[in-house]
Amino acid sequence: MKTYLVTGGAGFIGSNFILYMIKKYGDSIKIINVDKLTYAGNLENLKEVEHRDNYKFLKVDICDKEEILSIFNTYDIDRVIHFAAESHVDRSIKNPEVFVNTNVLGTLNLLNGAKQSWETEDGYKKDKKFVQVSTDEVYGELEDEVSFFYETTPLDPHSPYSASKASADLLVKSYVNTFHFPANITRCSNNYGPYQFPEKLIPLMINNGLNSKKLPVYGSGLNVRDWLYVDDHCKAIDMVAEAGHKGEVYNVGGHNEKKNIEIVTMIIDTLLEMLPEEDPRRKYISHDLITYVEDRKGHDFRYAIAPDKIKADLGWEPETSFAEGIKLTMAWYLDNMDWMERITKGDYQNYYNEMYRE
Ligand code: NAD
Ligand code: TDX
């Protein structure tokens, strides 16, 4: 039975990954979820699995070196799937320090924990793998409408967030080069789906729309992101963990570029399509809610991933069309408004008021 150490498993992608893996492998794997439960971590996402014997949650900060070492000494970990991070670009512009601590030093602690527990006299124990879940933002931005990020594109991070992720990637790469450490790096484009915290574009717009609040579009609204349904991403990570060639980087993208304004417009139209005629919220939902606001500092123009290598090497391709994925996502939020209400109380409300000056 393989044991997975999933870091950041209470966050958006991490919790989707744990649910995906338990659905796929049932009792034949064990999952240890290590999460500090920052504002972005929510154990409610994992209600479905929390009572299982093959799932365990540990409230641990990955910056705590001793705790991380002790986890590796206690459990025989086969796979590290490293999601834990500070993940929001706007927050990194306001407060970069926590991004360096968690994203860089936290990653170093995990690398050291895995290395010391996997090392043997002549290499590493068999079938061990560390997957660093990174981002396309480490490549910087595409200034035109036609080119793509490849694994060979030079790293050129622009925000404190992407600089911290690029630093972590370079540490992983250095462990591969120096110590032949068994790792892969995945770099994916913008994810969307259930359980995403409403500081990110899609859930923020859904939440605001349903509460007849303004829809704040940064700058011109013409910036482009390449959207990937979260389950497709989870599948890619599983495939990389199992079959990724040691030391390789894999880009994971949705072949699905959209301008931000297209996304916001589509959300309004889909809300109107999905809400029943008698729903009182319909009255307030319209394109008039769209409000252009001050641009993000250093706002990257366009991200677009070429996922050719992961297709050629591992046979992975995105399976969910955007039309299908956005409907699944919006249906989930409509069915889980109580989830949204609970997490938008408290800290998030303070952040929102400061960010959008309400
Ligand atoms: P998220 O912010 O929703 O979740 C992050 C999780 O990490 C939370 O549960 C939080 O409590 C936990 N965490 C934060 N600091 C920690 C610490 N010091 N110790 C232990 N746990 C800590 O993030 P997400 O959107 O799920 O992203 C997961 C990973 O995927 C990140 O590494 C991110 O860089 C990467 N990524 C995300 C996207 C995206 O579109 N969301 C795209 C590309 C890459
Ligand atoms: O209120 C908003 N208005 C707006 O116009 C917000 C929150 C965002 N935007 C724009 C900025 C971006 O061009 O929407 C686009 C998407 O923004 P985010 O959801 O903040 O995502 P992004 O900055 O692209 O980063 C995401 O993808 C890469 C994740 O947050 C990262 O963790 C991941 O690495």
Helical region count?
Answer: 12
Poorly predicted regions are none
CATH superfamily annotation of the domain at 2-190 and 230-253 and 298-320 = NAD(P)-binding Rossmann-like Domain
* Rounded Rg: 20 Å
Percent in helix: 40-55%
Mean pLDDT: 97
List key phrases describing it:
358 residues; 15 strands; globular; binds thymidine-5'-diphospho-beta-D-xylose
How is the topology of this model organized?
Layout lengths: L1 E6 L4 H14 L3 E7 L19 E5 L5 H10 L4 E4 L6 H6 L2 H22 E2 L2 E2 L4 E7 L24 H20 L3 E6 L2 E2 L8 H10 L4 E4 L5 E3 L1 E2 H14 L5 E4 L4 E3 H15 L15 E4 L14 H7 L7 H14 L1 H7 L3 H10 L2
Parallel strand pairs: 1-2, 1-4, 2-3, 4-7, 7-8, 8-13, 9-12, 10-15
Antiparallel strand pairs: 5-6, 11-14
The structure holds nicotinamide-adenine-dinucleotide and thymidine-5'-diphospho-beta-D-xylose.
The site of thymidine-5'-diphospho-beta-D-xylose has 16 residues, from α6 and β10.
Description:
- Helices cover 42% and strands 17% of the residues.
- By secondary structure, it is of the alpha/beta class.
- The strands form five sheets. Strands 3-2-1-4-7-8-13 form a seven-stranded parallel β-sheet, with helices on both faces. Strands 5-6 form a two-stranded antiparallel ribbon. The protein has a two-stranded parallel ribbon with strand order 9-12.
- A hairpin with a 2-residue loop joins strand 5 and strand 6.
- Helix 1 crosses helix 7, helix 2 (65-74) packs parallel to helix 4 and helix 8 (260-274) packs across helix 10.
- The protein is globular, with a radius of gyration of 20 Å.
- Nicotinamide-adenine-dinucleotide binds at residues 8, 10-14, 35-38, 40-41, 61-63, 83-87, 102, 106, 133, 135, 165, 188, 190-191, 197.
